[in-house]
Amino acid sequence: MSKLFHRLATLFRELRRRKVVSAVVAYAIAAAGVMQVADVVAPRLNLPDNTVSFVILLALVGLPVIAALAWLFDVVPDARSRSGSTSGEPLSGTAPPARLDTAVQPPPAAGRSATRSVAVLPFANLSPDPENEYFADGITEDVISHLSCVGALSVISRTSVMPFKTRDRSLREIGEALGVTTLLEGSVRRAGDRVRVVAQLVDAVTSRNLWAETYDRQLTDVFAIQTDVALHIAAALQAQLSPAEWTRIRKEPTSSLDAYQLYLQGRHSQVRFTAEGLQEGIRYFQRAIQLDPAYAAAYAAIAMGYEELGEMGAVEPGEGCGRAREAAIRALALDPELPDAHTVMGELKVVCEFDWVGAEQDFKRALALSPSNADAWDFYGRLCSALGRFDEAIAMEYRAQELDPLAHRTDYATALIRAGRYQEALAAAERAVRFDPHYDRGRATLGWAYLKIGRHTEGLAELEKAVAISPDSSAWLAQLGQAYAVTGRVEQAREVLRQLEELSHKRYVSPYHLAYVHTGLGEADRAIDYLERAARDRSGAVYGVRGSFLFAPLHSHPRFTALLQRMNLV
For the chain, what is the mean pLDDT? Predict the structure, then answer.
């Protein structure tokens, strides 16, 4: 009974929000006036006796028509904010193109014009219990997820907004850093079964308030709050929704609030992207599924967790692929329109199956469902790079960087190196390092950009910095070994090889990484031995072997060609 009451209350709130109630009341008042006039005028004009009855019938027929029009009119809102309006004609959302063949310039300076771009800053946790931090972060992520379904909006991903949690910079500075002109900020206070959410959308340049709302509801209303916030942001930014986008935004992910809270805790652990965090996250997701076996998003998160564990070598790659695929299949069976499920399935088809056609279909579907899904753009770009479609890869990695500049700040530079555009790659890598001087991948990418233009001393220095930042990474150590070899420092390269072999007796070292050093030393057959083992085990980033510039010296070797054939890469 309480659930029925809650649904009726939610329906009535939605009727009021869409102005259905106001429209019906206004129509009823107008109709009553018309009927009174008809009652007085009809006898004086000698109209038929049934004239008044006919007017009443017309009024009754028109009532549901007016209600339906009021409801349908808001499916594509006319984009007026609650505290003001913005000028310009609304645009319809569009799906991303299947192929991106246009040349892409280097990313422009921060602060580029983006009239329909938004960053959702982390909601502040005002709850008395600091343990509710995961709940505030979850609200943030779900609002981002809702907005990412709107094709007419460009939405910054979670990874890039989380560093601004402390609010140690002005809104203008944050907007410039993220390349957006609007920011959503807010707070969450949870006490018992009540939740208070305050949200406001502001212009990052002028600090003008575009929309604001305070929700003081039962905890069970949390999904309705997220939906309402997303819809009002879309309206304030004049981003029209298609009926399919409208349906996806309003869809509740689970029928169990307890399962949802376990899911949020799991995601809070998973995004640390350490072996311990991923494993802890999987345990939370499994508990959520016990409460709601139809929780598709939890299955998709389990799939992502196992795929990451397998790729980093924390579990045997075959085991990681198997468990991830089982969870991804279940997620898609439960919700065929879940973007994250298509993204992880596409990644599994790349990493574990070398099914390039199937993976591309999944990435296209994920982006059609969630055009601001930075991970889908990134993985799709990696697929194009693996297939040698470098122009497309560059365009896609640029888009991923726009949507999530923190998580994907070097992928664009790497794609440029693979395409042989070394000067552009150098500029992109330098920007990434300026953004975060302690980012190991950024240092390694910058190192290779230097090496490719002949600045060997600087290139080696950057790779050495990458190793110093992450001494446990066999990837950077192996790449440094190859760099030593190709610059004539053979003894140092062999010392690196000895370190890697010694390390392999203590923990897993991908054969893909050992192949780096042997390639640099000119030991082609030995390198291919390791690459064949990596392909058999689905180890490391072997799926990208064709597009990797690190294995370019092997391209003419018959065994390398045969390997590519087995991997469906030629």
Answer: 83
The residue count of the chain comes to 570
All residues at 6 or more sequence positions from 483 whose CB lies less than 8 Å from its CB, including other chains: 447, 448, 451, 459, 460, 463, 520
Q: Is 85 among the domain residues?
A: no
User: 173 is in which domain, residue-wise?
Assistant: 109-250
- pLDDT (tens digit per residue) in 472-492: 889 999 999 999 999 999 999
Question: CA 280: distance to chain centroid?
Answer: 21
**Tally of domains within the chain:** 2
CATH label of the domain that carries residue 119: 3.40.50.10070
pLDDT tens-digit profile of 200-228?
999 998 889 999 999 888 888 888 888 88
Q: Are 83 and 212 in contact (CB under 8 A)?
A: yes
Regarding whether 215 and 156 lie in a shared domain, the answer is yes
Which long-range CB contacts under 8 A does 491-500 form with residues at least 24 apart?
A: 493/517, 493/520, 493/521, 494/521, 497/521, 500/474
Residues 48, 175 share a domain: no
Q: Are residues 66 and 21 in the same domain?
A: yes
317-374 pLDDT, tens per residue? 888 999 999 999 999 999 999 999 999 999 999 999 999 999 999 999 999 999 999 9
Distance CA 185, CA 214 (A): 12
Could you tell me where the DSSP H helices lie in 237-373? Answer: 243-250, 257-270, 275-291, 296-312, 317-334, 339-351, 356-369
CB count within 10 Å of CB 130 equals 7
Q: Which two tokens stand for residue 104?
A: 């892409």
Last residue of a domain, one of 30, 51, 74: 74
| Residue at a domain's end among 222, 250, 278 | 250
Same domain, 120 and 245: yes
In this structure, the answer to whether residues 214 and 115 fall within a common structural domain is yes
- Please return the burial class of 316, using the count of CB atoms within 10 Å of its CB with bins 0-12, 13-18 and 19+: middle
Is 507 a member of any domain?
no
Checking if the pLDDT of 294 tops 70, the result is yes
Segment 22-48 shows an average pLDDT of 61
Closest alpha carbon to 222 in 191, 179, 276, 260: 260
- From 279, 276, 298, 272, select the one nearest 287 (Cα to Cα): 298
Tokens of 373: 């899904």
In a domain, 216, yes or no: yes
The residues near 534 (Cβ < 8 Å, ≥ 6 apart) are 510, 511, 512, 515, 540, 542
Distance between CA atoms of 109 and 112, rounded to whole angstroms?
7
Q: What percent of the chain clears pLDDT 90, i.e. is strictly above it?
A: 50
> Both 140 and 197 in a single domain?
yes
| Pairwise CA distance, residues 409 & 265, whole Å | 27
